[in-house]
Amino acid sequence: MKKSVSIFLALLAMIFSCDKKQTKSNISENTNQTKWVDSIYNTMTLKEKVGQLFMIAAYSNKEESHTDTIQKLIKENAIGGLVFFQGGPVRQAKQTNLYQSTSKVPLLIAMDAEWGLNMRLDSTARFPYNMTLGAVSDNDLVRKVGHKIGEHCNRLGVHINFAPVVDINTNSKNPIIGVRSFAENKINVTNKAIAFTEGLQSLNVLACAKHFPGHGDTDKDSHKTLPTVSLSKERIDSVEFYPYKKLFKNNIAGVMVAHLNVPSLESTDGLPSSLSYHIVSDILKEKLQFKGLIFTDALNMKGASNYKETGDIDLAAFMAGNDILVLTEDVSKGMLKIIEAYNKTEITEERLAHSVKKILTAKFKVQLNNFKPIETANLISDLNDETNDALNEEIFINAITTLKNTDEILPIIKEEKIAFVHLGDGNSAAFLEEIKAHVTVDVFSNATSKKLLKKLKNYDKVIIGYHRLNSRLTSKISKKDQQMIEEIAKNNKVVLDVFASQYCLENLSFENIEATVISYENTDIAQKISAQIIVGNKEAKGKLPASINNDFVTGNGIELLN
After folding, report:
1. 137 Cβ contact partners less than 8 Å away, ≥ 6 residues apart
2. Residue-level pLDDT at 30
3. What's phi and psi for 398, nearest 5 deg?
4. Where are the domains of the chain?
């Protein structure tokens, strides 16, 4: 007994010792952070402080004059950061090194890498869209995706990923969110967003949830106009805000505020949410207690730029409570307006310091206090190792969803006579190659409806593959393809495999279709895994992340065992 007590006391001592070491380490880190932030801030001119508020667009696929312009803006305006868009990884790394060497204070580098660097850059890995991840039950796989994207961001010197999208896509006609959303269910969206954020931020890459207060129930694109969200404040609080509340408890680093007209939250007619003090300061900062970095959505988008003159928009966005002004139309005009307001005491030193010190703190957290140039040797190979494909395969094995399997028509077996009909504008080569490795298939395409229907009568089963070139599109399949599918299904046993968003099937009659498989995307990996499911070599585990119609709703999915 005495021996057990001694061991217990020894363990307690070790725990307390570890806690003390950890506490000392945290105190030391916070002290160093405060010292660095204050030392930078205290040496800044007013113009340099205001410059920190701005992030401007940079491209690595443009001519030399673009690079010269960015360098000039860094030197003359002391801007705080860059958002990289189209180009390639080596070119971007070289530009980042150049721009960092030009800047007095290290620059925060951001990207939209919702499904990986490939969202913007060639020669990089692409991971599944959020809606595909929404079909996966195992959230640890989503965490792995966030972690892998974090690895790639780190390797390329990217500190902020403008992700995850946490809009709850309850409107199937949404022209801008769609498959960028995880799901139409707030719990699913939240769980996926938390997992993705944990994976990303475990690599010290800052995550940024968007688009606050919620862009999921819109039918307009804020790049082109100001969408209206006609929901009650009670509904917004219980649904649209739900993922934000949970993510704030999980220490997400940033939030991006959208350009939306939300009458239930902002009484001024037509005032974009990004410019609303009530939405940004009263609700996001005070009510929801968000303490992290607040970014505007791009201020050159029509949802914001149509509201005020250039420069006035930047001032309004800062006055509303945003910390970082993203992609302004004119940095110099924006800075001038904010400096004028400061000199007129419309902006206090306390308000300016609040945002600038938050930005500097973020720079310390991503170790920009000790910036090291990006190593370009082996960059392409480092970003494209075999683990990317392995993770993609694992995702699709768990995401691809079987919605119907009448009379257990699946899996297809060798002895059956099979026809394949290709529809849509996308390629089906990888799917066909994998199918043909297991069963004999006759391929039909570009045939008139009557001739095709006559030929198909000779087959036991018909696989119809709908392959969309751009599987981000959520628009309905064409009337012609819809009629073709329904006609074939009247006279044949049909397996419909859709390599596109499930939203495209909204108007399709499933009555005579024996089996339906949603593969979500038209990538080679999705095609390969889906073919293996159809021939019984892989299991189907996915669940529908958003509804197609009243018969096939979110959460539906039949497990096929191999």
Report:
1. 398, 541, 542, 543
2. 85
3. -95, -10
4. 52-383, 400-534
Mean pLDDT of 518-539: 97
Tell me which residue has tokens 């990089």.
124
> Which among 484, 470, 475 is positioned nearest to 512, based on CA atoms?
484
pLDDT in tens, 75-90: 999 999 999 999 999 9
Q: Which amino acid is at 172?
A: S
Residue type, 186: K
Neighbours of 44 (CB within 10 A): 17
pLDDT of residue 204: 96
Contact status, residue 103 vs residue 95, Cβ threshold 8 Å = no
| CATH classification for the domain delimited by 400-534, as one of 3.40.50.1700, 3.40.50.620, 1.10.287.130, 3.30.70.260 | 3.40.50.1700
Residues 6+ apart with CB under 8 A from 132: 179, 395, 396, 399, 520, 521
Give the list of residues 6+ apart from residue 26 with CB closer than 8 angstroms, or none.
none
Query: Which one-letter DSSP state was computed for residue 278?
Result: I
What are the residues facing 109 on neighbouring strands? Answer: 82
Q: pLDDT value at position 309? A: 87
Torsion-angle region of residue 376: left (phi > 0), alpha (psi -120 to 50) or beta? alpha
Cα first-last separation, the chain: 55
Could you tell me what percent of the chain has a pLDDT over 90? 89
CA torsion through residues 55, 61, 64, 65, sign: negative
pTM over 0.90: yes
The SS3 call for residue 339 is: helix
**Least confident piece of the model among 77-81, 137-141, 442-446:** 442-446
How would you label 292-306 residue by residue, b for 16+ Cβ within 10 Å and e otherwise? Answer: bbbbbbbbbbebbbe
Q: Which residues contact 56 (CB under 8 A, 6 or more apart)?
A: 70, 73, 79, 81, 82, 83, 327, 328, 331
Task: Write out pLDDT tens, residues 449-482.
Answer: 788 999 999 999 999 999 999 989 999 999 999 9
User: In which band, very low, low, confident or very high, does the pLDDT at 228 lie, cut at 50, 70 and 90?
Assistant: very high
What CATH number does domain 52-383 carry, 3.20.20.300, 2.40.160.20, 3.40.50.720, 3.30.160.250? 3.20.20.300
pLDDT at 59 exceeding the cut of 60: yes
Helices 139-156 and 186-201: crossing angle in degrees, nearest 10, is 40
List the single range of 149-163, 400-414, 443-457 with lowest mean pLDDT.
443-457
Q: Which of 290, 219, 287, 289 is nearest to 255 (CA)?
A: 290
Indicate the pairing of strand 515-518 with strand 401-405.
antiparallel
Question: What per-residue confidence (pLDDT) applies to 447?
Answer: 64
Q: Tell me the pLDDT of the chain averaged across its residues.
A: 94
Q: In sequence order, which residues have a C-beta less than 8 Å from that of residue 547 and are 6 or more positions away?
A: 172, 184, 553, 554
In the predicted model, what is the mean pLDDT of residues 161-189? 96
Report in angstroms the alpha-carbon separations of 22 from 28, 34, 42: 10, 18, 30
Query: Which residue type sits at 558?
Result: I
Alpha carbon distance 269, 454 (integer Å) = 60
